[in-house]
Amino acid sequence: MADSNLSNDPDLTNSTAFLCGIGTFKPKFLQRFANAKCFLVFFCLIGILQGAYFTYFIGILTTLEKRYSFDSSVTGIILIADNISPALFGIFLGYYGKFAHRPKLVTFGMMITVLSCFLSALPYFLFGSDTKLTILSKNNEAQLCNEYNSLASEHCQRSSQNTLAISILFLANFLNGFGSMAYYAIGTPYMDDNVKKKNSPLYLGATFALRIVGPTLGFMLSSFCLKYYENPSVDPGFNNNDPKWIGAWWIGFIILGLAIFAASFPLAFFPRQLAHTSASNEINCTISKSVCNDLIQSLRKLLKNPILFFHTLSITFQINGLFGYFVFMPRYMESQYRKSAAAANFFSGSVTLVAMVVGVFLGGYCIKKFKPRPRFLVGYMLSIEIFAGIVLFAAIFMGCETTPMQIKPNVIHSLHQKECNYNCSCNTDIFSPICDKNNFVHFSPCSAGCQSFIKENKQKIYQNCSCIIPDDENLKEPEAKSGFCFVDCAMFLPYIIIVSLAKMFSSTSRVGNVLITLRCVDEKDKTLALGAVEFVISIFATIPYPLLYGYVIDKACILWSRKCGQDGNCWLYDNDLFKYYLHSMSVCFIFLAVCCDLVVFFMSSRMKNFYSPHKENGENNALQDMSPDADALVG
Known about the structure:
Distance between the termini: 36 Å
Strand content: 5-15%
Structural class: alpha+beta
Helix content: 55-70%
Radius of gyration: 28 Å
Order of helices and strands: HHHHHHHHHHHHHHEEEEEEHHHHEEH
Largest sheet: 6 strands, mixed
């Protein structure tokens, strides 16, 4: 049996390669856990937690930008850090990993991820919370005209701290990339090698579906942490709907680091190879003298594999389009639908990612039950990509209408000094929007010339505002309310529904994508193939998309924070430009992915033994006639 306990076969218990434990510590009671099902449990648990790191970081991005004064382009540089390590080490880890003790190697990678979690939280312990906003709030609660206390010099002195914090975050993401690479490129082939081929889709489906719980957990955790102020023991004087709010971004990193450490340690106890594996699937753990030549020959063989080439190219375009979209999706919700950072992360995690879990489970189960032919499987994946592109295109028309209530450069009144606020000495570093009776937004109460305020139902009402034009003759004292003007937009719910459906259907092809990668190469080249794919994806997808999307989204910014004579984070976006830039770029990448998968579709009939074991005579059964002289483009 594929998942049988090794204790059922006394001959196998004599080999330490099949025994659970570390070093000489291999007690008998541990051997009952030496099976694929137990490995799956721990492997999925680690995947959940490791995946949560990425989306947690995505969820706190806008908070980090405000806290350490950097724009989306710098955000893109930080995001590519965890893809530089796979680009540098992916191929070598993929090749030499088959000679190593793979469970221990995955554990080592996860220990590096633990270190990256603690490093990510380090800037808070080095520099503490941003005292500028809390001091300003306490000394000048309403930021009124003629009551401004300048803290610019203090902030400029701390600009070097911001640079160091950005460097630490970059290093932490770089280390996390190594852990993620070890999990995928080493752990996935180990799983596939130690279960029957007919059960592999179900195991992979369970792995990927449960790993998607990780991103859900990450968004939910960021939503929870951002509800509290950066220093939970301090009351800043404003709530989390205020643009100045900086949530407790660092707490989640500590929680994730401790959880990953506790979950990954047991994985190191698993044996080099599970007992049921047949001799045909065993990997010779003796590294030959000509190992470098073998690596070069193996890479050449992969490069001459047209199915692997075009399939990898399709995945690259998909990641550029879909990852770029979903990374900036919380920010898009904040801008387009006026959701707080906590609320945007809640919807991104609890609704859309739950749909992905359902999709992956459904896809893996259907492949296991119906065993579709490779051509049918690729055709289904192709139709799903087309559907995703249509949904993203439709989302362009689902934003809120442009009305005078929305923020535009011509309705941000009194940002610069005018006669009505000339003597107010207003602070132009901190965006504190207020909405007047005419449904126009002012940069701050001070810029609107407001002299006083009252509180009604926990909301500030600013009065005696000299820069606000009365809406009628009866308005003796022009006034405004704190926050943005209310925009009555009913498109948020339809937007969430169609995006969730698109994610669910797209996720049903996740298992098929991995199976094609594993089955279009020789059995002994699976680990190297995954490492090579990881390398290509890092170079041409996961490294470029944060930079591309960060640059384009910055072009939609209409109001930057100004600190120490330089632009900092973006306070406000042009919603129309944001919407068009984000969706159109994603649709273009999906179109390129569809073109590549069309080629894979016509060649897919060449893949054999998709659900049955390879022959034991060493014959290449993964593909038929996949030499460079074959008619590569003919199905």
